[in-house]
Write a structure and sequence with these properties.
Blueprint lengths: L14 E14 L35 E12 L2 E8 L4 H12 L7 E3 L13 H4 L6 E5 L30 H9 L1 H13 L13 E5 L8 H5 L5 H4 L4 H9 L2 E6 L4 H10 L11 E5 L5 E7 L2 E7 L3 H6 L8 E5 L12 E3 L9 H4 L3 H12 L13 H18 L1
Parallel strand pairs: 6-7, 6-11, 7-8, 11-12
Antiparallel strand pairs: 1-2, 1-5, 2-3, 4-5, 9-10
Helix pairs in contact: 7-11, 11-12
Length: about 400
């Protein structure tokens, strides 16, 4: 969470909330709920939105019996209740408490969850067995308007200091996909999301989901005003998108706020110009949510881009015809089989970066992939080997002609 996202008004007056707990059971799965989506998108300025997806639009998810915990607690002389699923983490509980009490996550202390110590944010509610326990919330409320933790603006620059690839660990990948919390988060996100289609999706096309920051753009010199957009773009950007557009509808999905995303797209000339390709629609960080991953024995919290959110709205797309290109493989942790990790593009002013051929190779690979009936039969971790072989063949043909 950014330091300036929520400021506390006073550190001297802490409020304690006594918490009592009850439980109920329900069934959770992408197909079960009939609630209507009602949350507007920030991108309504572009084009009419598609109807919010119903849960029936998602296929292939398992119905999961979820147990929900109802917390009743007093805070500042008022009674509150909240519901939390047993598959949720302490981080999710803190987010719910923040929305109700305006106590920022970093100021919260929940006493009584674990005897003699404070429970970590990644600990599951079911592992704490809180039913019957009397809990105490300690924390000072913030003075600013409350924001959902997943909707805070201006995330810090995403650095590749923690990354991992679940495509090489099918057991761990399946655990992510079948996790009750993740299934429910996808369902909730898809139900809330309204996608504003900028250009109509075309019948029979595949789907390319493309990241921006350090995938097709060296972000820092652009947003800081050090260099113009054309010098920050990865070499061959527009040629790559033009080639991809022949066989793919193109979706941009960036882990940034809408205001920055809109700026980048216009500065790069990807929307509102006369390019030979069109962007179908754009997603910002809103439809992303946090998961916990482990590397070298340490737990990390990071956001993911679950493709099922898109597939729910547009069922013509699925694992058989979708490819996601990103410089961070952790972003496709819930869809490792559909992810293609590209090398990050940085230091755009250097000779090495100006000679970058990554998008040319990606274009060759997408052209090859467009002739495959089922993308899920292809190992995208070997994409560069395939692309280099195709490039060598093209060079030989050019030399001999």
């Amino acid at each position: 969470m950014p330091d300036d996202a929520i400021q506390s008004t006073s550190a001297t007056h802490e409020t304690r909330a006594e918490v009592t707990i009850a439980s109920r059971e329900t069934t959770v799965g992408l197909e079960t709920s009939t609630e209507e989506a009602a949350l507007p998108s920030e991108t309504q300025q572009f084009a009419p939105s598609t109807p919010a997806a119903s849960d029936d639009d998602a296929s292939g998810a398992h119905l999961v019996a979820e147990t929900w915990i109802t917390l009743k607690f007093a805070w500042q002389g008022k009674d509150y209740t909240l519901e939390i699923a047993e598959s949720d983490c302490v981080y999710d509980l803190k987010g719910a408490l923040q929305r109700l009490t305006n106590v920022p996550l970093e100021r919260q202390k929940i006493l009584g969850l674990v005897k003699g110590k404070v429970a970590g944010d990644d600990v599951r509610i079911r592992d704490l067995q809180p039913i019957g326990k009397k809990l105490t919330l300690i924390g000072t409320p913030a003075g600013k308007e409350l924001k959902d933790p997943d909707e805070l603006d201006d995330l810090p620059e995403v650095l590749n200091d923690f990354d991992f690839d679940l495509a090489t660990n099918p057991v761990a990948a399946q655990a992510y996909i079948n996790d009750q919390r993740n299934i429910r988060k996808i369902k909730e996100t898809a139900r809330k999301l309204q996608i504003n289609v900028m250009n109509p999706l075309r019948e029979g096309k595949k789907l390319l989901v493309l990241d921006i920051d350090y995938t097709i753009l060296d972000t820092k010199p652009l947003t800081s005003g050090l260099l113009p957009a054309q010098e920050c773009a990865r070499p061959g950007l527009h040629e790559f998108l033009t080639l991809a557009y022949r066989d793919y509808d193109i979706v941009i999905w960036s882990q940034t706020s809408w205001s920055w995303l809109e700026l980048k797209l216009h500065e790069l000339g990807m929307v509102g110009g006369t390019q030979l390709y069109k962007i179908a629609f754009v997603l910002d960080k809103g439809p992303m949510f946090s998961v916990y991953s482990t590397r070298d024995g340490k737990t990390y919290k990071h956001a993911v881009k679950p493709l099922r959110v898109i597939w729910t709205h547009f069922p013509q797309f699925n694992a058989k015809n979708t490819i996601h290109i990103d410089d961070l493989s952790r972003n496709f942790a819930l869809n490792p089989g559909e992810g293609l990790k590209i090398s990050p593009f940085r230091d755009c002013h250097t000779a090495q970066s100006m000679a970058d051929k990554e998008l040319k190779l990606c274009g060759l690979y997408l052209d090859f992939l467009s002739n495959v009936a089922d993308f899920s039969t292809v190992d995208h971790t070997k994409w560069r080997t395939v692309a280099l072989a195709l490039n060598a063949v093209a060079n030989r043909r050019q030399t001999s002609s």
